[in-house]
Protein 1
Amino acid sequence: MLCPASFLFGQQNKLRVIAPDLITIKRGATATAPLKVTISPGLHVNSNKPADAFLIPLSIEWTSGPLQARGETFPPPERIKVGNQELSVFTGTIQVNTQFKAPPGVAAGSATMIGKIHYQACNDQMCFRPGTVDVRVPVSIE
């Protein structure tokens, strides 16, 4: 069965995430994992603090791994006007940093932090269905 191109475009991820090759952390210490997030050309995603409560923010949820996520740092958002509404968005390529803490009793060795980035992409005419991108960050615990 052939799918129309517009259907396929609507189903693909509108952003790409590149995680670091490896973060190294000592037990009891903290480390930062930078995520490079690239939003498809011509699109924007709502920032982590959208202008209206009904808009879906860019967010990260860490679902498994030995480290404790201590929060994310997002870049300053852009302000754009669509119609008569001002929006707080990200476009192009941004870096989102997650601060991780290794508990003092965590086992040394290799591990992986697994998470999901949730977002809603829009262009200047419409918004697409909310999406999720899986993220895996390799970790070396010393």
Protein 2
Amino acid sequence: MSTISEARPETVSRAQFLQLFVAVFLPMFMAALDQTLLATATPAIAATLGGLRDTSWIAVGYLLASATIVPVYGRLGDLRGRRKMLLAALGVFTLGSAACGAAQSLPQLLAARVLQGLGGGGLMVLSQALIGELVPPRERARFQGYFATVFTAASIGGPVIGGIVVSHTSWRWLFFANLPLAAFAAWRLRQLPRGVPQARAEAKADLAGHVLFAIGAVSALFWFTSVGHRFAWASGTSLAFVATAVVALGALLWHERRHPSPFLPIDLLRERTIAITTIVVLLFASCLFAVVFFLPIYLQLGHHVSAQYAGFLLLPVTGGMVTAAMISAKTLRRTGRPRWIPVVGMSASAVALFLLGVLPSHEALVIALGFLCGLGFGCVMPTIQVTIQTIAGRERLGVVTALNGLARSTGGAAGAALFGAVVFALIPGVDRSALLQDADVDAIIHAFHRAFLVAAAAAALAAYVASRMPDTALWERHVDLAERGTTTG
């Protein structure tokens, strides 16, 4: 079997890349899968543990933990070796999976999901960084397309798998199944060479930055998901959460501008293209996770389909995302110009979400618009991942990939929390799933339609922001003359 050079060569053969692909795609698949795995299982979990209104935090807790830890993995991967840190992240993820499967109450499950997210964030960002390290810029477009397909299949396949498992056995097996998969992934990763860490001075840890981000994000999202039912809008509790969020996030911005090695890479955000793409990813992820997490719940509560069938009805979204990811990757590889690809994509998703919110509810319509929405989503991540890695350069691969992961996780958490807040605020009797059996179906459908309109507005804003990105020619700026003369499209 061929091996990948320890000296980080400029190019690798297809056989060498496939060796890397086999080793890192499983950790990435597991991390992406667990972001959405419980979407179709949510009513079943609520029936066992109670608290349907709070089940959006199953996704929010995982994504926030992932967002908080992603920059740490990015920097440590650069300094100490990405394979080593990927193995460490896999261990944390496995421990969290076991704790989730053993949870006996919703608070225990949410705490275990936070632990799982602390590992899952590293699986995602370090897998992406390994690709950026070993594949030259023009070829990254092709291989990031492959990984976008894996990520997409895992993200949308999560509800499908969850629905099948919940329909035939306990939801706890959604977590216990990770244990043998993690063991196999660790064995494959140990077959890779250790790699050569960057020769850089040890960066000073930004513990205060991580704490301020966590306090601010959790306070803001808890307020959005709780105001109006746990406490009144103008109550002291409500004002306290708002004040905490504002003070913590304001202090975070002040602190990050002065820290020598900030949690948020301010130097990268001064690059216009990276700053704009970060905002686009935030908005994109908020729409994606709102659709992936809540569309199966909408189908189960509003259309009374089974968990398994609701999962299968997400397959058109998967098909659209995979199709668009491959087409956009090939287009970027050929042209080297990323600007308009996410603009077109998020515009298509905005149209699909708007139509879901205003047209009469019908299963065939959900399938067709789901496919269009998936086509739009699939244009974003492969394009942006290649763009930011190329502009940042090899030495900052881990940091810029971590920034992208931070934006995706934060946006996903915000989208899941806000979409859930809109839906559950408009549905009567959501404290336990049993009460929903008697709920007005028209009220449920009305609530979800209003939330789809909110998601459509976010998608339209993402398209506008993407249109402000500079029209950068990636290959002209970052591919040398020899490579340009020998690389074919």
Protein 3
Amino acid sequence: MLKEFKDFIAKGNVMDMAVGIIIGAAFTAIVKSMVADLINPIIGLFMGGVDFTNKFIIMGGDGASYASLEAAREAGASAFAYGAFIMAMINFLIIAWVVFMLVRFVNKAKETAAKEEEAKEEVAAPAGPSELDLLTEIRDALTSK
């Protein structure tokens, strides 16, 4: 059973998947930073400095007012944090767009490489006689006898 497990782990698909997950986690950190540190401030600039993360409604009637969502949560208040949800949706859409653009770029690069490889194979193929030339030679050889 140990040998079978070792063979399973050593297969290329499992190792490729592991590398993909590790690279994906690193890429996620890059994309999150891009969204949080670059894109969200630009969106906030165009929307008049609106930061949705601190938009919330206190559930229940204790009448307390909190300066931020974090302060409400620390106080134990039940907060309906619709702003955090809106920001999560915006972040998701931005991340999905970035991943789409990356996949699109990779697919175009693969297509270009495949076309170049096909062109090299076509050039490398020897230019021998065509089928018609061979049939003509056979006909001529048969008629000359």
Protein 4
Amino acid sequence: MIIEESIIIKASIEKVWNTFIDIACWDRWNSVINNVKCNEKCMINGRNMRCTFRPFYFPINVNIFINEVKEKEKIVWTANKKGLKAYHEFLFTKNDGGVKVISREEFSGVLSAGSGLFLPVRKMKELTRKFLNDLKEAVEGGLK
């Protein structure tokens, strides 16, 4: 299963990038991925972070490995949770109106197979859109 969404953020690439990689501020603007814990303030290649998200009513705790951080261009992370593997990349490109952010996540494993009973495509798309909208609001409106 592949989930891909994008958004245009009306701001400089520096402002979008700095907001995104600043893990310490995620709980202030991000309503999808919560309780983010990392030994670093910002995303760094080869580091881990822990977080929680709620695709349904119950929280799912996830350990994420940050595979690649290419400044102002790309972030790739992976996560493994019993029966589910996720490969997630975020692409940042300058656009006439600001910055286009693309979120592309590929799921594999038992929990993503079949009709999507355990991981419905519709719900995952909704969460991805919400995450990108949260980022847009944080950047364009300023962190609160």
